[in-house]
């Protein structure tokens, strides 16, 4: 039986149900608009309602229990009243709507309850005397209560709700919300102190979580601790009252409100645990990126899922948040959170806009301008003036920065701030101490108080060393460390490593450092620490070892501020001796200072060492001249080890001295052979022609300007075509086995190059040089100690009778006399008497001797030797350059070389490799070395035969820059320099049988005995039959009997004022026999060079001989008969030649004046010569016309009866239009009394019918 209270409760429910008979559509629309969008948001609404209830118990509890299909909520509140029932059954009514305090009520209870219908169809409620349900399926079921029993056992004194979940509802969503429930909301609930959650899932164990909170006071601060199982989460709560609130319809007449900040804390120095920190409006809204919890009376959107950002009310609370945080920092700096509060600094706003961004910016801006952080000096300063010192990098084992002192403490962030706080301080201006700043502070500390630094414990210095070792790996930082006075010395001083020569302390067996080398020695105690020793080593401190001392000696000598004059001669000698005794091999670029013969100072790379004791030898005479101009080592050096032949050789191979004149400057070694190139055969022939410098990129103008006939190169020298003649003129085959092994300087290219040479067989050191020292044979540079080598004896070569030495002035006198084209003086006339035989006059010239030149029809010319058809005009001055001939010559040589390469293909032979290397194009490559001053000097001051003898005797050394198989793998710059070097040597002036000539314009002597003694440019050399003289071909010397040899001889003879016609005829014959295959070359030579000897008869009828060229072979001195014969021969050739060939052949005649012209009315001879290009002259081709125009027009002077014989010539030269018979009209004019010839008239009348018009 019901109690009266139960009866009243039933009556209330039934009355409410009857009253809800108004329009269902209006009610449904209103209810739908008041429900939240998120289905699980009802949980928060139920928590809100529970916290607003009335409790008389000591510990308010709220529980959620889920099982499949239902959710039960239990709360130990005092129970429903009739007013509460009417509120949840109404549409717009709430029991909390009348409160006007600081927000004691969280929300609107009636509307909050109705949110359960987002997931439930039927809801049962049991509270006190009330037990009823809402059935959403009924009409107005969400607001119309139905009295009904609770479906489960109720808990006395508790209010319970049972939700029957809707069919089709995704229950996993509800389960997820329960499992991830934000228990932090307990912090801001006023009454609820415990929330329990139970989840029962099919086939799984029951999951449950119990969260409760406890409150306490910590000084002025309220501390809330959340307990979840065995874990605790303490929070410090800061409350800030907000006044001056804007008007808000939902908060009418509210004078103030509060904002609460909850900071997670932990026992110092432990780091607080940061779980997602939401913003709350009593219930969680969402995470806005803050590192602390915020509770404020924010007005939310209808879905309660975000703050309504447009309301001034919310903006005022947000701005107050910045005020509350700054006030909290001032409070924390006075308490236990002084060194942890930066952990809660909000991050700088990102690109994504957030409602709280203005507050964050305001907090950070104001903190940057406030003195809120403590320095190591204990003062509160701005964050921007502080540096954080990474203790793991820049502090000792006790955590004290190495650079901490009274000068830096005020700028370092206090060490009391835990490491997990440091990162956050960067947002307000604290910067991390960089390695460079650390080193600068350390350097300042050392400079400001060196005593404090030096008196630190060895352990401290060792720990600092570990840090500096790591930093020294960066070049920029290493440079800073080098400037610090970090290194203790044995004399109790300290020094920096910059620019110092420092060594670790030596032991008893160590060598003494030579005199004049200043070094610093470390403190033995400091260097005994392995860490510090490693640091010192990284800073350049060297071990007391011979190799290190040797490197130091070399470093001192190569220093830019080293003054060798400050050292005595004995000190300099001791330096070289120390290096020698240490068995040390210096680097390839090593250059030491030496004392010279005049006790001056000179680098080894420019110094010479005496090498020859044979006073009459070529080398000795050259050295006598050389030492007048270039530095020679002081004799005291050679007295140090007078019996050791290795000593001077070691100086040459390792320190740059030379025993022979240096060939190039600066010194450049050939590159080593690449591994992919196979080894060349040994003892290969020295091959390669003289470089004409006609590179592929030169245009025709460059060639015409730069090339000279006498500079043409000889053909490649091979064993087959290299010929010498004995004194009887017999061909003497060369012995190429006697040539120097060419691979000695190329095989060693793979190692260190032989940089300097020792002359072969010409010194007291010849034993060691030629027999025992591989360093001079294979190009390696290595120390040679006396105990490492054995002496071997070798008989030195006999000296030769020295030729007369010619001075520079004398050579220049001869050369200038020849070049000026005047009276030519022989070498014998300008040198000392007795040096050569006087020129003997030859037999008289037989001018009636047949010319013998082979004509185009194959018949020899029957005219005299000086026939006008094959001779040239009057003697002129010696011509300079012959550009057209040079072009033909270059093309000829290239064509000839190509033919040779096609005929003989030796891909694997060294000859082929060397030829390919010598002829490889270098394009526009720049040069890297040139001919040295020494060689220029000795060519100028010494006799030619001595210089060339020196070059031959040391060819193994010199040839590495001139020719060889190794050229094929050299850089273009090296090959270009080599080509230029050969040209420079070829341009050097030398003595020859016909005077002073450039070497490249000479020939080898005794090639043709017939010409010996003539004024041919035979270079003066000793033992001319020695096959090793083949090397001269590299410099343009003609070394074999070929077309080049005879052309060169002919050119040389043509430059003299007297000549032996018989020998000239002999040269012509030799050229004629070699005509086939050399047509273009010979034609170019005879057209461009004055090498045609002719007889001239001036008006005084005195026959003279003169030189001219083929271009001017028809001259005003020529006879008309000779010219006519020449034209007939040309005309005859043209009959069998096609038009294109004719045009090519006669092109040179277009601009040459070869046609004899009559201006006067004389019957014989001619007045002048004109060319085809001159259109002023004509051809009188019949007697009448000739008689009419003779003396009135320039007419061709050839006999009238011969003119018709030149029809083909006139045709190809387009001269037919000049025939007067074709361009002259003849008109007859009767004179005297006119009478009619009737007989003739009658005859013509009778014939008129037969005459066609």
UniProtKB/TrEMBL annotation:
| Ranges of Basic and acidic residues composition bias in the record | 905-914
- A Pfam family in this protein? SCA7
Taking every annotated instance into account, which residue ranges of this chain make up the domain SCA7? 838-904
Q: Which InterPro entries match?
A: Auxin_embryo_med (IPR052957), HATPase_C_sf (IPR036890), SCA7_dom (IPR013243)
Q: Where is this region: Disordered?
A: 776-802, 899-918
Entry's NCBIfam families?
P_loop_sacsin
Q: What is this protein's name? A: WGS project CBMG000000000 data, contig CS5907-c002771
Species annotation: Fusarium acuminatum CS5907
């Amino acid at each position: 039986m019901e109690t009266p209270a139960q009866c009243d409760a039933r009556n209330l429910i039934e009355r409410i149900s009857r009253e809800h008979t108004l329009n269902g559509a209006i009610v449904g629309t209103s209810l739908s608009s008041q429900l939240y969008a998120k289905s699980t948001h009802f949980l928060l609404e139920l928590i809100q309602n529970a916290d607003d209830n009335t409790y008389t118990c000591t510990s308010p509890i709220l529980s959620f229990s889920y099982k499949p299909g239902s959710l039960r909520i239990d709360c130990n509140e005092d129970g429903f009243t009739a007013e509460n029932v009417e509120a949840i059954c109404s549409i717009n009514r709430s029991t909390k709507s009348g409160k006007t305090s600081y927000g004691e009520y969280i929300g609107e209870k009636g509307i909050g309850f109705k949110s359960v219908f987002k997931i439930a169809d039927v809801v049962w409620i049991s509270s006190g005397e009330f037990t009823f349900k809402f059935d959403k399926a009924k009409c107005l079921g969400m607001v119309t209560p139905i009295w009904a029993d609770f479906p489960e056992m109720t808990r006395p004194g508790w209010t319970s709700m049972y939700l029957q979940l809707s069919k089709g509802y995704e229950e996993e969503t509800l389960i997820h919300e329960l499992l991830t429930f934000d228990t932090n909301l307990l912090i801001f609930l006023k009454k609820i102190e415990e929330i329990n959650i139970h989840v029962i899932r099919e086939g799984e164990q029951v999951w449950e979580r119990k969260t409760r909170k406890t409150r306490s006071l910590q000084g002025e601060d309220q501390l809330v601790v959340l307990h979840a199982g065995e874990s605790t989460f303490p929070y410090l709560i800061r409350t800030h009252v907000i006044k001056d609130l804007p008007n808000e319809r939902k908060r009418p007449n509210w004078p103030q409100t509060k904002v609460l900040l909850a900071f997670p804390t932990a026992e110092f120095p432990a780091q607080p645990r940061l779980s997602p920190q939401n913003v709350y409006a009593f219930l969680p809204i969402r995470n806005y990126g803050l590192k602390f919890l915020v509770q404020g009376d924010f007005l939310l959107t209808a879905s309660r899922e975000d703050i309504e950002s447009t309301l001034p009310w919310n903006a005022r609370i947000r701005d107050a948040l910045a005020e509350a945080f700054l006030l909290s920092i001032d409070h924390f700096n006075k308490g236990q959170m002084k060194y942890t509060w930066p952990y809660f600094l909000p991050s700088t706003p990102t690109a994504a806009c957030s409602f709280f961004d203005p507050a964050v910016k305001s907090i950070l801006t104001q903190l940057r301008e406030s003195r809120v952080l403590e320095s190591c000096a204990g003062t509160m300063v701005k964050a921007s003036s502080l540096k954080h010192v990474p203790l793991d990098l820049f502090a000792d084992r006790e955590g004290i920065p190495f650079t901490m002192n009274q000068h830096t403490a005020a700028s370092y962030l206090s060490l009391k701030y835990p490491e997990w706080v440091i990162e956050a301080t960067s947002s307000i201006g604290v910067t991390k101490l960089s390695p460079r700043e650390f080193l600068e502070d350390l350097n300042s500390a050392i400079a400001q108080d060196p005593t404090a630094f030096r008196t630190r414990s060895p352990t401290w210095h060792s720990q600092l060393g570990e840090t500096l070792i790591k930093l020294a790996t960066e070049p920029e930082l290493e440079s800073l460390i080098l400037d610090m006075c970090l290194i203790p010395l044995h004399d109790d001083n300290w020094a920096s490593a910059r620019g110092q020569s420092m060594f670790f302390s030596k032991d008893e067996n160590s060598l003494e450092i030579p005199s004049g080398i200043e070094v610093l020695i470390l403190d033995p105690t400091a260097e005994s620490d392995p860490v510090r020793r490693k640091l010192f080593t990284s800073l350049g401190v060297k071990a007391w070892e011979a190799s290190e001392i040797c490197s130091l000696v070399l470093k001192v000598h190569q220093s830019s501020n080293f003054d060798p004059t400050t050292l005595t001669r004995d000190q300099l000698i001791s330096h070289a001796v120390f290096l020698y005794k240490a068995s040390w091999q210096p680097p390839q670029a090593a250059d030491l200072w030496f004392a010279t013969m005049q006790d001056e100072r000179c680098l080894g790379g420019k110094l010479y060492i005496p090498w020859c004791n044979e006073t009459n030898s070529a080398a000795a005479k050259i050295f006598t001249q050389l030492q007048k101009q270039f530095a020679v080592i002081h004799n005291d050096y050679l007295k140090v080890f007078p019996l050791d032949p290795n000593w001077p050789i070691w100086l040459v191979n390792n320190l740059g001295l030379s025993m022979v004149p240096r060939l190039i400057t600066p010194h450049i070694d050939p590159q080593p052979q690449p591994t992919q190139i196979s080894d060349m055969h040994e003892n290969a022939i020295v091959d390669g022609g003289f470089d004409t410098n006609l590179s592929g990129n030169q245009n025709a103008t460059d060639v015409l300007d730069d090339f000279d006939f006498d500079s043409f190169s000889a053909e490649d020298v091979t064993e087959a075509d290299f010929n010498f003649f004995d004194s009887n003129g017999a061909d003497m085959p060369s012995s190429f086995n006697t040539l120097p092994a060419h691979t000695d300087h190329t095989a060693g290219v793979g190692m260190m190059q032989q940089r300097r040479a020792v002359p072969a067989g010409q010194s007291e050191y010849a034993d060691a040089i030629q027999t025992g020292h591989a360093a001079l044979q294979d190009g390696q540079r290595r120390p040679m100690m006396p105990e490492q080598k054995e002496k071997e004896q070798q008989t030195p070569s006999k000296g030769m009778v020295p030729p007369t030495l010619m001075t520079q002035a004398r050579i220049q006198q001869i050369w200038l006399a020849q070049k000026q084209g005047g009276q030519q003086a022989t070498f014998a006339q300008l040198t000392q008497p007795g040096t050569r035989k006087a020129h003997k006059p030859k037999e008289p010239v037989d001018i009636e001797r047949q010319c013998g030149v082979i004509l185009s029809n194959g018949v020899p010319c029957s005219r005299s030797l000086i026939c006008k058809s094959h001779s040239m005009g009057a003697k002129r001055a010696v011509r300079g350059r012959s550009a057209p001939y040079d072009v033909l010559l270059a093309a000829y040589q290239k064509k000839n070389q190509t033919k040779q390469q096609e005929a003989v293909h030796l891909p694997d032979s060294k000859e082929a490799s060397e030829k390919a290397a010598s002829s490889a194009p270098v394009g526009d490559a720049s040069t890297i070395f040139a001919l040295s001053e020494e060689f220029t000097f000795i060519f100028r001051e010494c006799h030619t035969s001595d210089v060339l003898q020196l070059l031959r005797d040391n060819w193994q050394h010199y040839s590495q820059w001139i020719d060889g198989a190794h050229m094929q793998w050299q850089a273009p710059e090296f090959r270009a320099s080599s080509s230029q070097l050969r040209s420079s040597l070829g341009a050097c002036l030398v003595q020859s049988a016909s005077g002073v000539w450039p070497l490249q314009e000479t020939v080898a002597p005794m090639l043709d005995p017939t010409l010996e003694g003539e004024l041919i440019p035979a270079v003066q050399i000793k033992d001319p039959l020695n096959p090793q003289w083949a090397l001269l071909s590299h410099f343009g010397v003609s070394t074999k009997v070929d077309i080049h040899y005879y052309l060169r001889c002919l050119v040389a003879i043509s430059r003299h004022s007297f000549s032996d016609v018989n020998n000239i005829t002999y040269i012509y014959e030799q050229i004629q026999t070699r005509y086939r295959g050399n047509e273009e070359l010979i034609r170019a030579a005879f057209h461009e060079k004055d090498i045609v000897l002719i007889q001239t008869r001036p008006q005084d009828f005195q026959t003279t001989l003169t030189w001219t060229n083929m271009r001017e072979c028809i001259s005003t001195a020529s006879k008309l008969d000779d010219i006519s014969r020449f034209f007939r021969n040309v005309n005859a050739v043209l009959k069998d030649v096609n038009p294109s060939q004719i045009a090519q052949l006669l092109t040179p005649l277009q601009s040459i004046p070869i046609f004899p012209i009559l201006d006067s009315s004389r019957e014989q001879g001619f007045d002048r010569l004109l060319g085809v290009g001159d259109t002023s002259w004509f051809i009188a081709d019949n007697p009448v016309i000739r008689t009419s125009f003779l003396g009135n027009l320039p007419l061709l002077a050839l006999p009238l009866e011969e003119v018709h014989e030149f029809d083909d010539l006139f045709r190809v030269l387009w001269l037919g239009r000049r025939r007067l018979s074709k361009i002259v009209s003849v008109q007859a004019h009767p004179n005297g009394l006119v009478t009619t010839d009737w007989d003739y008239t009658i005859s013509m009348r009778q014939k008129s019918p037969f005459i066609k018009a």
